[in-house]
Amino acid sequence: MKMQLLVFLCLLVSATGFTQDQQEEAKKDTTKLEEVLIVSRRKFSNHRQEKTLSSIDDYLEKSNNVTMIKRGNYAWEPTVNNMVSQRLVVTIDGMQIFGACTDKMDPITSYVDVSNLDKVTIGSGQEGTENGHCVGGGIDLQLPTSKFNGSGLKSSIDLGYETNGNYKATGLDLEYAGNKFFISADGIFRTSDNYDAGNNKEVLYSQFEKYNLSLQTGYKFSETQSLDANIIYDKATDVGYPALPMDVSLAEALISSLTHHYTPENKALKTLETKLYFNTITHIMDDTKRPIVPIRMDMPGWSDTYGFYSKADVIKDKHHVSLNLNGFYNKSLAEMTMFSNNPNEPDMFMYTWPDIRTRYTGIFAKDAYYLNDNSSLESSVRFGLHNNRIAKEEGVESLGIFHDNVEDTKDRTLLSVASAYKYNKNNYKLSFGLGYGERAPSVSEGYGFFIFNSFDNYDYIGNPNLKDEKALEANFSFNQKFNDFEIGLQSSYFYIMDYIIGDLAPNVSSMTIGANGVRVYNALNHASIFDIYLNSSYKISERLSVNGTIGYNYGKGSNNKNLPLIKPFSYFAEFNYNTSKFNAALQLEGNGNQSNFSSLYGENETASYAILNLNLGHAFYGKNGKTILKYGIENILDANYSTYADWNNIPRQGRNFYVNLSYVFP
Amino acid sequence: MKLKYLLPIVCFTLFFSCSTDDNDDTMLINEVENLQLIKTIENGDQSIELYNEKGMFETGYNMISLRIKDNNTNTYVEDATISWMPVMQMPTMQHSCPKSEITKAIGKDTVYQGFIIYQMTFEDGSGWSLTLDYTINDVDYSVTETINVMQYENQNTASFMGSDDSRYIVALIAPKAPSIAINNMKVGLFKMENMMTFPVVEDYTIALDPRMPGMGNHSSPNNTDLTYNSADHFYYGNLSLTMTGYWKLNLKLLDASGTVLKGEDVTENNESSSLYLDLEF
């Protein structure tokens, strides 16, 4: 611990060397920095989305590199560059938060709602390491920034209905902003019955119900300092997971933070933001709604995280330096109770996550150096100390069944470095980057005990002796505009060493009744993941435009087998008609045949599909406020289909008529 | 100032003088600490106290502590030689069961120890009697008393006929408090030479396959077969238990040449071996 502190003090001291006087021209450079490092950064607050009440999941899915893995109609798991949660760092406004479900039924994105957020920042690969270590990328769900603009009281209401699944959503926003004080509150409620796949085939156990409340308040002490408090409470009940053998009776999160902002004037240090946070998650998985199960079980899980970060933005000469010192402490506990069918036999019990404590402290520094007006070199480094401890002795003993040598603590040092050259001139944009990153195994990978994976039908055992997973990465993107036509290409390649994946444990019988066997987490020597997307758009007239994307992804391990969950050839095309008061879009979306599937990890060949969507929107401005109406049809042709990212090939929604109505009070 | 130095000395002296007074008493109580009295057998000038952890005899392995009190002096005998013979009276015959010698408990002055493995009992706990023969100062004594042996909730011992036409008794000794881990499993194996003699069987192997019948009869990894330990005459192996609940420890007895004397492999079609022990936690 002392060692850790020392290292960071040294880093901090050397880093603060940048904190000097500001120069005039640097100011110009900051604006250039916008959007460059970040693959996508979109604002939520406007009403430009197809549905004003679309979920975060829907929203994220619109990004090129992001695909959502679906286990049902709720709580989709984001992947970036074909890599799932444990290879990503998903944060809420820089706060670390970890799901409490061993079966990944509660990705972090399920505990916030669009109403809580201001924007989402997605960083591909090592560009996503601002808040933590990752291989695939980072997603930061950003909360609204404090407003001391004196805009007074504002309120709005949103209503949504969709025919498929009898889905209803209601949202209410209230906000008061003074010059020194602001408070905003919002609530959202969503409920859905089972949805129908194409041809009116009901998908059982796809219902859900959730509400989300948030309260944010801030006080401005002086021109340079302010303090914000934010609290989000999210509760989902009766969530069905048609792709899994169990459902969720409760997924509850309390996310709280206290943030101090310091924005000095006329200094090289532009902002200094310090946050203390705490979040707690309770997740209860059960099977009470399933009529026939081999054995009844309960699988509750809990995850508590305490943390802080302090980040600074410094502009000096041609440098723009961002620093982030952060740390967190997480406690993950999950257990399983199986209720014996034979009343004479006792109930069975085990810890699936035997109270794993994770402690991390690290520092991130990024420097954007402007070589000239058109080009910049951006380099970043993150270094951290990571420690896992098994707090329950039972955990050490139970993992000892599978591993000869189980220590109750494990220390790791993690490093991430990345550098990118960016060129941006008039109609031409180019960037080329290289990166290296390491990540620690997740709680399940390191310490899970008989966690059933319904995807490949194996029970998984963690391996506390796993090496860090390491990735070398190269990415390239370019964009060229010819008058009304724009074409862009983006591609990344990951060479991942010690790629963590389950290894068959021969002759070990599964715990889950009907499972194929047991896999113990181990590592492939290496694996390669490649993706390439070609984007183009053409502006036919002032009001009419068309855009399209095609993508190709590839993933193979050193065992010469395909990796699971790699997106097949995909395409997307859209016609847009836009005026200030009306917009219409016709979308075509599809995937090719998934021929490079991973049979080893439970995949089968998912057939190609294509669906059509129509989205329409009206805006009405009146004395009594603004009304926005969005409506449309999804999956117009009522195709019955599933994609490679649908867990156990559960079919997606069939034809769906939706309408969203938003009213902003004047 | 003075008091400050004096006080510890006073305390110390007080403490010391108190403890010397009670020395005998505390020592006697301590020798059966954490043990429960099963029964006191009165035999004229002596009372024999039998103890174990539960305060009752049950089928299976019973570790028993005993001590003999001289009723005249109210002190416990420190130099007795003791032997025992448990006998079960059946309708047509009587038999004994596996048992150890009785020896002085290590580090104790008045407590003697040994084990008895009751392989069966009547439903109401009746049927057994215990004869104790002991010698104090070259005088022989003997007493026989009926005892109660209750049926243990699980099958922690099995009595069976091997394919060599010998009758064997196997009894689970450890783990006493199993955990989700690789547990050290300890078993006693005895041969019924005649109705009254049950010698230890040496150098056989007991194959182990633990299963959970309530969970699709799954097994667990990294178990090892039990082998004979010539130092203490028990069999030891690794028993891995992946969750709490009811486990059936399927066994197969092999003699020194590897011939199967009892038990079968557990397969898809054969849910359990005919030789097994039960465990619940």
UniProtKB/TrEMBL annotation, chain B:
Protein name per Swiss-Prot or TrEMBL? YtkA-like domain-containing protein
- Superkingdom of the source species: Bacteria
